[in-house]
Amino acid sequence: MWLVYAAGSACFAGVTSILAKCGIQKTDSNLATAIRTIVVLVFAWIMVFVVGSQSQITQISGRSLLFLVLSGVATGASWLCYFKALQLGDVNKVVPIDKSSSVLTILLALILLHEEVSACKGIGMVGIGVGTYLMIQPAKSEPLERKRGKVWFVYAAFSALFASLTAILGKVGIADVESNFGTAVRTGVVLVMAWVVVLVSRKPGMTFAVPSGELGFICLSGVATGASWLCYYRALQLGPASLVAPVDKLSILVTILFSRLVFHERLTRRAFLGLVLVTAGTLLLLF
């Protein structure tokens, strides 16, 4: 059953990136993150009351709460970095780096959660690493991408780092907590973190300057994110983190497809080979 939830998480996550990219053409990425987190929070708490887990508010242990808060902080940092990278770079280059976080997740799961790493996983990790490298290398006809490459790459790299920490901390945090409730708690942490960043950067007034069309895409991306999270953390609760994370990362296929249809971003032959390696490597992680 965890595989079904993980696959659902991947589909919603793939759509999220495209919707978010559409919503940050003129809107500040930090502000967009803060707005969409409101949608995710509402969505998450609706699910809490639907499944009847609201009673855990007074029953959650200090340890679970601590790890959920830490997971929320890591998620907030990952989101802020990811959407800044999306605003600066192409979807088909930012997403592969973010999805490569599955490699670091496996290593952390090995060290901290004592989950095994088989030979197939080892080969898969190498495939993901090589494939990601091929996908992010700019073609000779992309001089502008070469100039700004370091900027979006740094944000994307930090996004991957914090995303891997999110999975590990989240796995520990929901060990004895209903997954929907755990998702709602950590989303609240993300919301606070995102708006603090907006206020610190002195851009709260921009909330009313967001184009209506972009605001719609931002809200839709929040709905897609909420659905992805609910599926993802339910999958984490039912299955091992080292398997759930790779399945979730297959959302790259959905994202690349829609980036071609919506933004007309083309993959070079080298990038396509990289996508094949990333996909094959991700599938190998499941064995």
Task: List the keywords.
globular, about 0% strand, 12 helices, about 290 residues
Task: Provide a compact summary of the structure.
79% of the residues lie in helices and 0% in strands. The chain is an all-alpha fold.
How does this structure look, described?
By secondary structure, this protein is mostly helical. The protein has one domain (2-284). Helix content is 79%, strand content 0%. It has twelve helices and no strands. The chain has helices at 2-23, 29-51, 62-88, 91-99, 101-112, 119-136, 143-173, 179-200, 212-238, 241-249, 251-262, 269-284. Helix 2 (29-51) runs antiparallel to helix 3, helix 2 runs antiparallel to helix 8 and helix 4 runs antiparallel to helix 6. The two termini are 17 Å apart. The model has no long low-confidence stretch (mean pLDDT 85).
Describe the secondary structure blueprint for this structure:
Blueprint (H helix, E strand, L loop, with lengths): L1 H22 L5 H23 L10 H27 L2 H9 L1 H12 L6 H18 L6 H31 L5 H22 L11 H27 L2 H9 L1 H12 L6 H16 L3
Helix pairs in contact: 1-9, 1-10, 1-11, 2-3, 2-8, 2-9, 3-7, 3-8, 4-6, 4-7, 4-11, 5-7, 5-10, 6-12, 8-9
The rounded Rg comes to: 18 Å
Number of strands: 0
List the total number of helices.
12
Biggest beta sheet summary:
none
Low-confidence stretches: none
The average pLDDT value, as a whole number, equals: 85
- Name the structural class: mainly alpha
Order of helices and strands: HHHHHHHHHHHH
Silhouette: globular
Work out the count of structural domains.
Answer: 1
Quaternary structure classification: single chain
Please bin the fraction of helical residues.
over 70%
**How large a portion of the residues is in β-strands, by DSSP E?**
under 5%
Q: How far is it from the N-terminal to the C-terminal residue, by CA?
A: 17 Å
